[in-house]
């Protein structure tokens, strides 16, 4: 539904923001549990490249049909991250890591699968990079299990909670550092009610400022032309630009 797509986009934007990526160059990111590629869409819009992995062939088929710009891999994250050491500049995951706490088969051991995932993810990330994993823990014990296995694998960092006093807007982000420990970002909505409004206003102003700096508004003609140019650089077939590119159609009655 459109509501789910909107929530997914918001969480993806927040996860990429928590990565603290450099603004002067594109980065290669890993999207764990990429599904139909909704998170990858935001990564591409930010000018970065990505590889997505997911355990569901059906979801990856949807991503292919949507013609996402990232590369896709069918894989179980509980078996580890199958990439060379230092491949990625960062990693995001939206609503996926908590599934490793389930024992879907007799051979599944949640602590072992979590440690396998985190240890191989640590190796696949470049030193000084981050992994931001949004998750829905069932309880505090599950969150402690996930965090403990991440720290055992070598990560530092912790949990960032956005809007902790809201039952609907509350979101958990496991923010992990590779190598030198960084400063854990502050969660949104952690101030008093009056300051929360100010923070939301600041977020909107930041988005407008970003557009002023040169990034095109989504779905505009410039945005469409930039996306088509990126796809050409990737060697994909793209229709030629015309005076009708990006023009809104008149409503039909």
From TrEMBL:
Q: Which residues form the Methyltransferase type domain?
A: 30-105
Q: Which reaction does it catalyse?
A: a guanosine in 18S rRNA + S-adenosyl-L-methionine = an N(7)-methylguanosine in 18S rRNA + S-adenosyl-L-homocysteine
Which segments constitute the 18S rRNA (guanine(1575)-N(7))-methyltransferase Bud23 C-terminal domain?
176-250
Q: Where is the composition biased (Basic and acidic residues)?
A: 235-244
Residue span of region Disordered: 228-253
A GO cellular component term found in this entry reads: cytoplasm
Which GO molecular function, any one, fits this protein according to its record?
Answer: rRNA (guanine) methyltransferase activity
One GO biological-process annotation of the entry reads: rRNA (guanine-N7)-methylation
Keywords, A to Z, come to:
Cytoplasm, Methyltransferase, Nucleus, S-adenosyl-L-methionine, Transferase
Q: Where does the UniProt annotation locate this protein?
A: Cytoplasm; Nucleus
Pfam assignment, any one? WBS_methylT
Q: Which PANTHER family match?
A: 18S RRNA (GUANINE-N(7))-METHYLTRANSFERASE-RELATED (PTHR12734:SF0), METHYLTRANSFERASE-RELATED (PTHR12734)
Subunit field text: Heterodimer with TRMT112; this heterodimerization is necessary for the metabolic stability and activity of the catalytic subunit BUD23. Interacts with GRIP1.
Q: What does this protein do?
A: S-adenosyl-L-methionine-dependent methyltransferase that specifically methylates the N(7) position of a guanine in 18S rRNA. Requires the methyltransferase adapter protein TRM112 for full rRNA methyltransferase activity. Involved in the pre-rRNA processing steps leading to small-subunit rRNA production independently of its RNA-modifying catalytic activity. Important for biogenesis end export of the 40S ribosomal subunit independent on its methyltransferase activity. Locus-specific steroid receptor coactivator.
Q: Which family does it belong to?
A: Belongs to the class I-like SAM-binding methyltransferase superfamily. BUD23/WBSCR22 family.
By what name is this protein known?
A: 18S rRNA (guanine-N(7))-methyltransferase
User: What does the organism's lineage look like at the top?
Assistant: Eukaryota, Metazoa, Chordata, Craniata, Vertebrata
